[in-house]
Structure formats: structure tokens, C-alpha cells
Amino acid sequence: MSFEPRSIPIDPDAKAALAAKGLDYRLVDSNDLEALDGWIDADHRGFHHARPRDPGREYDRAVMAERRIHGVYDDDIPEPRVPVATVSSWPAGLSVPGGRSVDGWAVSSVTVSPTHRRRGIARALMEAELATARRAGAAVAMLTATEATIYGRFGYAPAAKAATVEVDRRRAHWIGPDAPGRVHFVEPGSLRDQAPAISRRAVSRTPGEIDRWPGALDRMLGLVDPDSDASRGLRALRYDDEHGQPQGFATFRVTREPNEPGWVEFDVLAAATDDAERALWRVLVEQDFVTGVRGLLRSVDEPLEWLLEDPRAVTTRDAGDHLWVRVVDAAAALGARRYGAAGELVLDIVDPLGYAAGRYTLLASADGRAVVHSPRGEGETDEAPKRERSRSRGADASTGGARAASRAAAPRSMRLHVRDLASIYLGGVRPSVLARAGRIAEASPGALELADRMFASPRTPHLSIWF
Ligand SMILES: CC(C)(COP(=O)(O)OP(=O)(O)OC[C@H]1O[C@@H](n2cnc3c(N)ncnc32)[C@H](O)[C@@H]1OP(=O)(O)O)[C@@H](O)C(=O)NCCC(=O)NCCS
């Protein structure tokens, strides 16, 4: 999805709903520095961050210049240049099972001033983002959430988890294989050229990861404000394979009191290969004069405990929802991923906001490819995205076999809410678990068992950044 995200017209419903409250909803022109700075100030205040200062402000300006940013303005306050609500969004690929990517609409910076809360401002903004995502041709909208109770009402649901992984240094005796390549300490700035390609490959092999935006890696490498204490404390490791090709990197810092062993803390470990992942973990956990290693936003399914003699050296905590997904075009979303088993499955999707509502037939072949047939469902909205809206997505001749195989029997079917579709979409939870929770209803025998196998992902979904 490469296009100018600001070219989509402002959502008329949100504009009208907010105007009725005496508020002005508008797109912020990133060339208007006064307006942009007012918006950035509101965003920082909304998340309880300190007032931005250079060079952080410069960084924010550059990042926001790439995005579609909206502010809600109240002319009746002493500082009307600062919006009372903010949201930003941009098109980004979301990795799905099978090493592929689906067109996503990333939503961020959702804030409403405490002076204007609970008047329906966030609702107007969030509904507008869904309409814009649809107009942009995205299959899903996605976000990370400060609180887990805000976004379900708009059809978002947890789709990929993250956890904090801690390793007790004294117990961390490595028994994993030696990597064929080598890990080197490097200056963080030296990774600027190699990190984007490594990250792209790391993202594409992990369902739940999203494309990194321009500037994201500069922040990870401490290059936004290199003279700050935080940046100066950052150390960088790079793994080169046996051919000398960089395949992974990590940045970490050691937090410590004088004369006490410290903690190695990191939130960036990008590995394009399993060798790189193992080798970087090994250097991180085998440091001396540290109490332990703490990895933030790690997978809930790290191979680490299988690489150490004492699996109890590893503690996984704070595991929970991290990536939230909202399906806005079910046919495109279902057609984009690969499936774990062949079969034909009918999904009756309930979506109170209409975007994904209807009956979809998912026909997967043994190689994991699928076609999706979706005669217009009852609740589907009239507003189609601008692009061609073929209701048969992911078409591939190889699915003919699966169709022939299942032609004899009536297709297995189940009924589910669009939120539950989002949760099973990347393989983060089995459909049968949601059925046990009373959320998915099997309409014909065997549907759940088939859905469990079809929606399984070879790799546990994981998102390793906030956005
Ligand atoms: C979360 C936030 C954006 C909500 O803004 P708001 O304008 O007060 O929300 P609205 O009045 O539009 O409320 C919309 C709905 O969400 C609910 N809601 C809003 N904030 C909520 C919260 N923090 N927890 C649970 N429900 C919440 C409202 O009750 C309302 O429910 P309903 O429409 O189903 O009756 C605002 O409180 C905020 O800026 N918080 C701090 C920053 C933040 O956490 N942003 C989220 C980033 S992921």
C-alpha cells in the first residue's frame, strides 16, 4: 500500500459529530510548524510525557510528517493552538503466517485531554480511523493499547502477545549449539545502514510484527539524542554469519548501582535467522558481573529455556496482549495469510459496525494458500473501499484440489464475532479455546477441529515494539 495517506478526505461523520459539540476536527498540515508543534505538545501531555525539547522534537516532527495526523480543536480555551485530542495513522504491512504481509492501517497517538474526556471524542476519532482504513484499502487496522478496556468496543482484539523475559545469570549455563558465525560489539551508529534490511527480514518471519517506520531504528539505536545519558549507556551487538553477512543485532544497557552487579536490559533483538537469535541471546546471558538479563517485549514462546541447562533460569512474566487488530476487510485479510491445513470452512462473521459482517467461505489447499468467497453479507456496509472489490481473494489454481475434496461433504461452519476473528487471525489463540470461552459457536460438527488446524501458525505471533 504505497500512497499519500493524507490524500484521503477527512471523515465527514466525525467532522459533523464533533462540530455538534463545538469542536473542530481537522487534519494537521505538517508543514505548518506551529500547528505541528501544538499537536506534538498535546500528544506528549496525553501520555503524561515531559514537554518535548530538541532534538526529540525534531525527531517527532520528522516522524509525524510521514503520517496522517488529526487534531480536535476547541477555540474556547486559552491555548487553542494545542488540540484537545490527537490521533495519528499510517499504512503499514502486518506480518501474517506464511512469511507474508497484509495491508494494515496503524493507529497511534490516541489522546483526549482530561478537560474534555468522556464526551465521545475518542469514539468519533476511532470510528473515523476505521472508515479511513477502509478507504485506504487496508485489510486490518492495528494498534498497541495503554489499557485493555478501550478498544474492544470498536472491534479490536488482542492478536499477538509480548512478555518480559528474565534470566538468572548464575543459573544460565548454555547448552545450545554454537553458532557458525560471530557476535561483535559495534558502535550503534554503524548499524544504521544494516539494521533496516535485518529488521525487514526479522519482521517478515514473525507474524504480528509490523513494518518499521522511517526513524524507528534511529530511536532504537540511540541516535535521536546521542549525547543523552540513555543513549550513551546503550551498547550494540551485531551477529555476522559464517560468510560475514550481518544477520542480527541487539542493543542493551546495564543498569547498576556502584560496585553492585547490574541488570542487562534490552528491548531490541532483531534476528533474521535462528542462528543470529541464539548467538545474540548467548552473549547477552553470558555476561559476567551482572545479576541477570531482562528482555522487554519478547515473545511468549522464546526458545531460550531450551538453550540453557537449567530451564528455571528463565522467568517469563507480564505476558499479555500487545498487538490489537481490527479486521476491516475480512476477504482480503483471510486471503493474505497461509493456512496450517487444507479444508473448506464457512465463517459467519458478526460485526456491529458492518465492515467484516457476512458469510465467508475459506478454501485452503495443502500448500497453505487459500481463496475466500464472500457473497455480500447482510450487515456489510455499502461503503466499499476505492480499489476493486472482488469478493474472491487470494485466488490460486492450486486450491481446486481442496474444493474437489470437500465438495462431497457440506462445508463445516462456525459463527464468530469480528473481535474473535482478529484473535485467531495470526494463530495467537486456537478457535476451540474461544469456543470453550463461549465466544465462537460451532455450527456444524468438526468445524472447530478444522479451524484449529487451519488457523495454526508455525511461529507464535509476537510484536516487539510499541507504536
Ligand atoms: C482513552 C481516552 C483516549 C478516551 O477518550 P474519551 O474521549 O474520554 O473517550 P470517549 O468519551 O469517546 O469514550 C468512548 C467509549 O470508551 C470508553 N472509555 C474511554 N476511555 C476508557 C478507558 N480508559 N477505559 C475504559 N473505557 C474507556 C467510554 O466509557 C466510552 O464507552 P461507550 O461509548 O461504549 O459508552 C482518554 O481517556 C485518554 O486520552 N487517555 C490517556 C491516553 C491513552 O491512554 N490513550 C490510549 C492510547 S492506546
Automatic annotation (TrEMBL):
Highest taxon above the source species: Bacteria
Residues annotated as domain N-acetyltransferase: 23-180
Gene Ontology process terms (BP): aminoglycoside antibiotic catabolic process
InterPro entries to which the protein is assigned, alphabetical: Acetyltransf_17, Acetyltransferase_Eis, Acyl_CoA_acyltransferase, Eis_dom, GNAT_dom, NAcTrfase_Eis, SCP2_sterol-bd_dom_sf
Biased composition (Low complexity): 395-411
GO MF annotation terms: aminoglycoside N-acetyltransferase activity
Biased composition (Basic and acidic residues): 375-394
SUPFAM superfamilies given in the database record: Acyl-CoA N-acyltransferases (Nat), SCP-like
CDD domains: NAT_SF (cd04301)
UniProt-annotated binding residues for acetyl-CoA: V110, T111, V112, R118, R119, G120, I121, A122, R123, T146, E147
Active site: Y151, F467
Alphabetically ordered keywords of this record: Acyltransferase, Transferase
KW ATP-binding (keyword) present: no
The UniProt record lists the keyword Transferase: yes
Region listing for Disordered, in residue ranges: 371-411
Pfam families registered for this protein in UniProt: Acetyltransf_17, Acetyltransf_9, SCP2_2
Record-stated family: Belongs to the acetyltransferase Eis family.
Assembly and interaction partners: Homohexamer; trimer of dimers.
Name the UniProt record assigns to this protein: Acetyltransferase
Protein species of origin: Agromyces flavus
